[in-house]
Specification:
The complex is a heterotrimer of chains A (about 230), B (about 100) and C (about 1000). With about 230 residues, chain A is α+β, with helices and mostly antiparallel strands. Chain A contains 6 helices and 11 strands. Chain A has 2 domains: about 110 residues, Gyrase A, domain 2 (2-Layer Sandwich); about 80 residues, 2-Layer Sandwich (Alpha-Beta Plaits), CATH 3.30.70.1520. The relative contact order of chain A is 0.21. Chain B has one domain: 2-Layer Sandwich (Folate-binding fold). Classes of the chains: A alpha+beta (about 230), B mainly beta (about 100), C alpha+beta (about 1000). Chains in contact: A-B, A-C, B-C. Chains A and C meet through β6, α5 and α6 of A and β8, β38, β40, β41 and α22 of C.
Chain lengths: ~230, ~100, ~1000
């Protein structure tokens, strides 16, 4: 009880960093089974038994650590803290992203970023950010609330064109760009990760719909599922 | 289907990413309790319905979730200007 | 039947690929490259339908989208039936099955024609209004008659087996129409490097060049078309869309294009292929190169099969190798149509006469016709046609220079085909879609696109530019302008203009309606709109009856109402109305066109959003368990929530009774993951809550939860939920399942627009937490087996929350209750939701842990009088009306949202409707929700209604039905009786009581 509702210790050199928030490592141990939003779709078996060739490849990057970071770009203690904790700057140019090793951060709005790290690092990174940042900011762990789908292959773009009204042409959507847009009848954070690959961040409760949609929309090109 | 420039994302997006939120620049009275019923009624219910330039509020609901203002011609549906909350429009109807 | 009208050579058909098809049950043969229309004409099929009002035989008139008559039913199987297919646009494929859509029992031998003759008299213009509206009770009968008689075809009775698709595009230059202008524009734009989309409704690009005999760069135009298309195909940024009709041109250069991907291949799309695709295009610049439609002239009996539009005759000859008759009379107001007579003669058939309405026409084509010995009769017109199922002859008479009257004696000519040309109408439909009003131009005798606010250019026939040389020039120039405007500088540089010889032409005559020796009303019928059987005399009658606005004339006569939208007849109709009103055409105005340009299948509109994908279905992390345990589901928002969990043999009521009792007697469990959850952080979070909720939040301690009501500025309740203080500057708000997105947007609205200075951030965590509520006297015992949290009632009190582990998973447990029982709401990261849920069941068996769904939840909360926002409220109810003044704090320093609204006089008047409990006198009767209360069920109608029932259930725990509802002044009427008259005439009697039916002191939840 006490450790989570106790006010955070105020760093002596950062008197402004009074952030009285509840902190919680949400991860259980290996004995407790964790299921990604698409667990029931059993993509592993489909990957094994399904087609190996097709125009579109789909892979779920599951159980990663997702952290929403909120703060003002006018708050230097916030931006500097992010740099200190992450080792790189939060991208402040609209619709841009940064990938450093297995950490990636996406601009979502002028005061919102989505940081994705390996699942087991989520709480540590959150703690490091909280310790380093100052002023008014917020960090929210949403690791259980969304998942990452990677869409790749020569026809990945065609599937995207059926799914989002956003212009996914090379001239408008270079590698590294990230947009939050409509995706079929739901929404997605869409990031171009390579010449022929895109990453979709989908909310958990919509994941099944997105999976059905992607199967349908890529049927004419052939869908390969990767474990 | 409008094509709306989001001043926060810095580019045009399809209308389906946005929600229209009605007339812009309706400030909540600083002291609602001292408003007369008439003043409060005006604030709550009375809206312009101009033929021509209209200042509207929109929110980039499926994008950055930010509210902003749009000046739109209600006859041609042309969007004349997009500006952030707290800013004043530079394109206004004659007499405004 | 042999293809008696097929030429031995020529055209763009492939004679080595014969195709069998069926029309009205008979088998015919055509060739690859034919349309259904050209194949029918090749086989000498004259009658392809019966007209709507008069049931007159009708034949093919045109060769494109403007065809009004040849609207057929397609489909070899029930599931693949397609109505409203224009035979002129349907490519022929082997095995095609088609039939006429109107005509009982078939188009050739029509029993309706007897009725029709009577019906025709019964159906003057405005017949809808005059004849069929009264008596109203007959409308259904009339409607059936009209629907069937209107020949609208029929929809399939089985599911469509095909797949349809939608795709989004963005481009720099969108070019509509791949005729000479569109091709030239596309070529120049493509070379600039711009992203170009070129769409054309036909199977081949080329437009008029596909049947033209003109030359480009000294060689047949078709060569230039082939070379141009070949180059366009090589440009990587060019998307070519043949068989694609641009059906809608919407705001801000958004266009919808209907592509028929496999309609030309087979009755059903080949496996794995999409039948039709809707392209949704956002274009920077649009070039409309839609060309023009030739206008037929309006003369007596002009609907007899064999009467065609002149250019269509040329198209059938030159493109399809079909001469649709033997002896031609051509009537024209212009030079261009002479080409049809020349083509006819070249095909080796007889040109009986060219009847030119002009007194003294001069031009190159006229010279050629004369040189070749064709009989040119000037200053005359075909005033009437003879024949019924096929033209047998015409009456030709001299007319005056204005075309107002017949000036001499009538001569009869024998022929089987009449081609007519009244000039050309630019295809301005798409331009009209954007709200642009067309403008009349006397020099081209037609409407052209008017001013527009779109980033739109036009080229070619749509501008009234008809000379091929000028069309090509205009196309290239426009393509360059569009590309440059879209940011591709120097697009215009180095354009090698395709060259074509200028043909010298004389002026055309503005003539639409051919005079007859008799007045219009008594002359043979002169049809303006074939599909709706609108005649010249009908339009004149409409103007005489006082319909002076062209929009009124249109509605009164139904002109342009058909599936062809009056492409062929509208301008003629306007001209006739104008003349009848003694006005010019621009004075009379024009009707404009709306999307869609041609009819579109529902499949293409639906795309993939059908069946399982019709709407989003949202699932909780425990959904699989619910399915495996037989839950039935209820839609709440987009969520699929378990409704109840029936066991074998149980009725719904049985299941609810069991679930309710188990929860009150031992422990039940609800999946509450769908409730909206919003994480609120920042030092002003608490103050923000105080502003958006009606109650006080200043003193809510860390570790505590509180229920709150949210109102609009009008003081009306719109959402509610429990918000917990996670830390001094950190709160977790819950909302109703359906209200989650709206509440978050509401908070953002106030934060971003009213109080941006407040330091607070809102983030949705609805999907982050799996929430399971265990409720009932044994819930503590069950939870104790799985958690390290101290559950002692003295330290972990009602409306507290604690953090710890449940089944080894980090959890937040909230001791809040929507059932009135001892309850714990367990929240774990959703990845562990199902794991923890299953662990609870492993330990729950000994407590008879019973899953329950939304229906039992509703019953249990109603037993306690807890409201559901959106069910017991409807946007007209204040917290006071709900009897929840305990949840309103007017001592808060800030005037919270809803306070001023609630202070309005009307919110404080006596006699408002208020929420009360209702107990039916008959304990078994469940008053239907929505029932209206009255004081005296015997009072005369309309009865004075006091309010409606908002929630009503049978309570197994109480052994009687319970209800909540609004009653005028209800709070002061406890114990009184009200009556609920039902639709079946019965009346349910009920007593007004407190809505808290069970445990009014709240002892059960507070143990």
């Amino acid at each position: 009880m006490s450790e989570m509702i106790a006010p955070e210790k105020v760093a002596a050199n950062k008197p402004e960093a009074v952030q009285e928030v509840a902190r919680m490592n949400q991860l259980a141990g290996p004995a407790q089974r964790a299921e990604s939003p698409l667990h029931h779709a059993d993509l592993g078996t489909i990957a094994q038994k399904g087609p190996k060739n097709g125009g579109v490849t789909l892979q779920e990057h599951k159980l990663l650590g997702h952290l929403v970071i909120r703060g003002s770009q006018d708050n230097q203690a916030f931006l500097a803290g992010a740099r200190e904790a992450l080792g790189f700057d939060l991208p402040t140019a609209p619709l841009s992203s940064v990938q450093q090793g297995d950490r990636s951060v996406r601009w979502i709005s002028p005061d919102e970023w989505l940081l994705i790290v390996p699942g087991e690092e989520a709480f540590d990174v959150e703690e490091q950010l909280r310790a380093a940042m100052g002023g008014h900011f917020a960090i929210v762990n949403v690791s259980g609330g969304q998942t990452v789908l990677e869409l790749s292959g020569p026809e990945a773009r065609s599937v995207l064109k059926k799914s989002t009204p956003y212009d996914v042409h090379d001239r408008n959507f270079p590698v590294g760009k990230v947009v939050t847009s409509v995706f079929a009848k739901t929404q997605a954070v869409i990031r171009r990760t390579g010449e022929q690959s895109w990453e979709l961040v989908i909310r958990r409760s919509f994941a099944d719909y997105a999976w059905l949609w992607l199967q349908d929309a890529s049927a004419e090109y052939g869908l390969v599922v990767k474990a | 289907m409008f094509y709306i420039y989001c001043p926060h994302c810095g580019e045009h997006r399809e209308e389906e990413e946005f929600h229209a939120k009605g007339q812009a620049h309706i400030a909540r009275p600083a002291d609602p309790d001292s408003c007369s019923d008439k003043e409060w009624g005006e604030y709550l219910y009375f809206r312009k319905n101009p033929r021509g330039l209209h200042h509207e509020m929109w929110v980039h609901a499926a994008g950055c979730r930010k509210f902003f203002n749009v000046t739109r011609d209600t006859v041609s549906y042309e969007i004349k200007e997009v500006y952030k909350i707290g800013e004043r429009p530079s394109v206004v109807a004659a007499g405004n | 039947m042999s293809q008696k009208n097929r030429l031995a050579s020529g055209g763009r058909i492939d004679r080595s690929k014969p195709l069998r098809f069926k029309y009205n049950g008979r088998e015919y043969q055509g060739y690859q490259g034919d349309t259904l229309a050209s194949a029918l004409l090749a086989n000498g099929v004259d009658v392809i339908g019966r007209s709507f009002k008069y049931s007159r035989p009708r034949g093919i008139v045109a060769a494109g989208a403007e065809e009004p008559n040849a609207v057929l039913q397609l489909g070899a199987t029930e599931a693949t039936q397609v109505p409203n297919v224009r035979a002129t646009q349907q490519e022929l494929f082997g095995g095609l099955v088609s039939s006429a859509t109107n005509g009982w029992p078939n188009a050739d031998m029509d029993l309706m024609s007897y009725v029709g003759k009577v019906g025709g008299r019964m159906m003057p213009p405005g017949f809808y209004y005059k004849t069929f509206m009264y008596p109203q009770s007959m409308w259904e009968t009339y409607e059936k008659f009209i629907r069937k008689a209107a020949g609208l075809g029929r929809s399939p009775l089985e599911n469509d087996p095909d797949t349809y698709d939608k795709i989004n595009h963005h481009c720099d230059v969108m070019i509509v129409g791949a005729g000479p202008a569109g091709l030239a524009a596309a070529l120049v734009a493509a070379r600039s490097g711009a992203r170009v989309i070129l769409a054309d409704e036909q199977n081949e690009f080329g437009g008029s060049l596909l049947h033209s005999r003109e030359k480009i760069n000294g060689r047949p135009a078709a060569n230039w078309v082939a070379e141009t298309v070949a180059e366009l195909e090589k440009h990587p940024e060019v998307l070519l869309l043949p068989r694609s009709t641009v059906n809608g041109y919407h705001d801000h250069n958004f266009l919808t294009i209907h592509q028929r991907c496999t309609d030309h291949v087979a009755d059903q799309a080949p496996k794995g292929q999409v039948r039709q695709r809707m392209h949704r295009v956002r274009a920077n610049w649009v070039v409309l190169a839609t060309g023009a439609h030739e206008r037929p002239l309006v003369y007596g009996n002009n609907d007899v099969p064999g009467c065609m539009v002149a250019s269509a005759v040329s198209t059938y000859i030159n493109r399809y190798g079909v001469v649709p008759g033997n002896e031609l009379v051509l009537m024209t107001t212009n030079d261009y149509a002479y080409q049809t007579a020349l083509d006819w003669a070249d095909a080796g058939r007889k040109v009986v006469a060219i009847v030119d309405t002009r007194q003294n026409p001069k031009g190159a084509r006229i010279e050629e016709a004369r040189k070749r010995g064709l009989n040119v009769i000037t200053g005359s017109a075909v005033i009437e046609v003879q024949g019924s199922k096929r033209v047998s002859g015409v009456s030709v008479a001299p007319i005056d220079a204005r075309g107002d009257k017949v000036t001499g004696s009538v001569q009869r000519l024998s022929c089987d085909t009449v081609a007519s040309s009244g000039g050309w109408s630019p295809v301005i439909h798409l331009s009209c879609h954007t709200g642009s009003r067309p403008e009349w131009r006397d020099d081209i005798i037609g409407f052209v696109p008017g001013k527009t606010v779109q980033r739109q250019l036009t080229a070619g026939g749509i501008n009234g530019t008809y000379s091929l040389r000028k069309v090509l020039e205009e196309g290239a120039r426009t393509g360059a302008q569009a590309a440059e405007s879209a940011g591709f500088a120097d697009a215009a540089k180095g354009i090698a203009l395709p060259l074509s010889e200028e043909v010298q032409e004389g002026p055309a005559m503005a003539l639409f309606h051919i005079p007859h020796t008799k007045p219009t009303a008594r002359a043979p019928k002169q049809f303006v709109d074939f599909q709706n059987d609108v005649t010249a005399s009908g339009i004149e009658l409409a103007t005489r009856e006082g319909f002076e606005s062209i929009e009124h004339v249109k509605r009164y006569t139904a002109m342009g109402f058909g599936t062809d939208q009056g492409k062929l007849g509208n301008i003629n109709g306007m001209a006739i109305a104008a003349k009848s009103l003694n006005q010019t055409i621009p004075q009379t105005g024009t009707t404009i066109f709306r999307p869609n340009y041609t009819p579109i299948t529902f499949g293409a509109i639906a795309g993939r959003d059908c069946g399982e994908l019709f709407d989003v279905k949202r699932y909780s992390a425990m959904h699989r368990w619910h399915v495996e345990h037989g839950a039935l589901f209820e839609d709440v928002g987009n969520w699929k929530r378990p409704w109840y969990f029936p066991k074998a043999g149980e009725s719904m009521q049985d299941a609810l009774d069991r679930e309710c009792k188990a929860t009150r007697e031992s422990v039940g469990i609800l999946d509450a993951s769908t409730l909206g959850k919003i994480d609120i952080q920042g030092k002003d979070a608490r103050e923000f809550l105080a502003r958006v909720y009606t109650n006080a939040w200043a003193k809510l301690g860390v570790g505590k939860c509180r229920y709150g009501l949210m109102c609009g500025e009008d003081g009306m309740v719109f959402d509610d939920g429990v918000t917990s203080c996670l830390a001094e500057n950190h709160f977790l708000m819950t909302t109703t399942t359906g209200g989650a997105a709206r509440v978050l947007e509401w908070l953002e609205l106030y934060h971003q627009t009213e109080w941006p200075e407040m330091e607070v951030y809102f983030n949705t965590v609805t999907d982050q937490w799996a929430t399971m509520t265990i409720s009932g006297p044994n819930s503590r015992k069950l939870l104790a087996e799985l958690t390290d949290i101290d559950l002692d009632g003295d330290s972990f009190k009602f409306m507290d929350w604690r953090q710890g582990k449940v089944a080894g998973v980090p959890a937040r447990v909230f001791r809040i209750s929507f059932t009135g029982e001892l309850s714990y709401e367990i929240n774990v990261q959703a990845n562990y939701g199902l794991y923890v849920w299953e662990k609870l069941f492993e330990h729950g068996a000994k407590f008879n842990l019973t899953p329950y769904g939304t229906e039992t939840m509703h019953v249990l909360r109603a037993e306690k009088g807890f409201i559901i926002a959106g069910q017991d409220t409807d946007g007209s109810v204040t917290p006071i009306d709900l009897g929840m003044s305990w949840c309103v704090s007017n001592n808060k320093p800030f005037s919270y949202i809803g306070k001023r609204g609630m202070a309005r006089e009307d919110c404080n008047r006596p006699n408002r409707k208020q929420l009360v409990g209702l107990k039916a006198k008959d304990p078994k009767k469940v008053i239907p929700e929505g029932s209206q209360a009255v004081d005296d069920p015997k009072q005369p109608l309309p009865m004075k209604m006091l309010g409606h029932v908002t929630s009503s259930y049978y309570s197994a725990n109480l052994g009687h039905s319970i209800a909540m509802g609004m009653i005028r002044d209800g709070h002061n009427r406890m114990g009184e009786t009200v009556y609920y008259p039902q639709a079946d005439g019965s009346v349910i009697e009920a007593e007004i009581c407190s809505p808290i039916f069970l445990d009014p002191k709240g002892e059960r939840q507070n143990v």
